[in-house]
Known about the structure:
This protein is of the alpha+beta class and 615 residues long. The chain has 21 helices and 20 strands. A hairpin with a 2-residue loop joins strand 4 and strand 5. The chain starts with 8 loop residues before the first helix and ends with a strand.
Amino acid sequence: MPQDKSxxxxxxxxxxxxxxxxxxxxxxxxxxQSMWLDEMxxxxxxxxxxxxxxxxxEVGADVHPPLYYTLLRTVFATIAYTSIAARLVSAxxxxxxxxxxxxxxxxxxxxxxxxxxxxxTTLNYYTISFSxxxxxxxxxxxxxxxxxxxxxxxLKTLRLKHSIWYGIYTLxxxxxxxxxxxxxxxxxxxGLLFFLNEEKENRYLFIKRFLLSAAIVAIGFSxxxxxxxxxxxxxxxxxxxxxxxxxxxxxxxxxxNSELLVPVFAGCLLIFIASVFFAPKTNLKxxxxxxxxxxxxxxxxxxxxxxxxxxxxxxxxxxxxxxxTIVVLPAIIITISYGIIQTKYKILQVAIVGFVLVExxxxxxxxxxxxxxxxxxxxxxMISNVxxxxxxxxxxxxxxxxxxxxxxxxxxxQPNIIEIPKDAFADSVLTPGNKYFNIKQxxxxxxxxxxxxxxxxxTELEKYYTRLCNAQYVDAWAEYYVLKTDTGLGITHIDYSNxxxxxxxxxxxxxxxxxxxGSMQFKPSRLSAGKYEFIISARGxxxxxxxxxxxxxxxxxxxxxxxxxxxxxxxxxxxxTANDIxxxxxxxxxxxxxxxxxxxxxxxxxxxxxxxxxx
Length: 615
């Protein structure tokens, strides 16, 4: 049956619709998530204010080649140095990848194969997530698809232009991700098989064309070969040893660990493998037999790119990691798509594609809440909080300050950061004669699975310091401590001698003010003209799954609400006055309730109120 490769109206309509959907899915909420550790690393490496000399020195020492960093640096220098601009580069690569994988499937067989592969790519969780990340993985996906597209065209036609373009895209892939080395090894084996399958009269031309492609790659990459060599000499890594089930684990990862999509796609792969055995054996010319062409190309592409880093992980240093293997995902998607079109009945093909598209959308938008659920470490939000509440050159203890420096640079402050283990710092603060003993104020911040300060050390610290901030985020946190006495920081302590009225308020044994219902008020404090920060610390007891909500007012004007939890919760409010005035705080419990059956009462416990003059 002749293969339909014409760009007819139906094909144009479908691929255009997929590209439009790809644009929407990759641009929607592109900056909703904070940048995580590796993305911040990308931003610092691509900083356009750094000299080119220093840039090349730093990039040469990185575990990734320079193409993506250099592309971003150019974008930053010409457009804007922002996270959105960085992620847009990946998004554009992701959108173009839909077109590239359509062309790849079309080259292997026909339009139908290309369109199904493009449809799966459009809604694939893995490609969407990396299209919204400032890392080189989506660009690698695009370039490996283009490299194999022109490899197949070259194998089929032996044309000069295909030899040149194959060499160019392979060279760019090598400059994008070092896993290209394994891809090239797979392509060399593929080339050898096709050479042996080629007509004898074409073999000389075959060698000429592939030598030209090899020359383009070798000459083009020669300036960077020394840096590739240095990467192979690395002796330590954070990458764990791959498990014996890594192929299955990665397959689940590629498709978002979906309970429905993974078995369907696995079944499609089995259908393709079975169809190979039942395919007619009359035409064994690889380049003229689509099913053998796909089997040869994709099986070698996948197996060699998995096998070589796995063997090196076992014999030298672990280097096989899920997201690095994104360079085999186009082959897997193409083979799954081929399995779909090998099903016997057209109605079954339509049903499978329809199910895949609908389930992919449901899994992405509803099951995973991809666009509305925070899943990345909230470095941006945490550092924004620190910047807004940063005063008097306070010390910031940060064990990962190198990467987080990007958000500090964009926060508008020049923080006093030290990179030291938090427990060691706490020991120094608490031990007379040490460098940081009795320091007036400090922040301790962390994220990316980093544990918070040891509870015993925190308890010891709080004998001498007040924890004015305890901000918790997704996989990130920030704590602010000030010395309780002689701070010189302009902080007024409203203690329990200031307690005035409140029919249902009392001081507990833990030196907390218990508010059981209604309101309580503090005696006036004299505040001079200026701007102030008010810090309230409280906790609550739960009734019917709800904790107390506290309305905070100053001179009868509401400052805001503090929603308590079982643990101590800290809220910060701001206020200003043009004149010296007496200031009277009041706190109201707005949602009092009781559960007599379970002997539970919704009560609030105020730990402290601190007032800090800002100006």
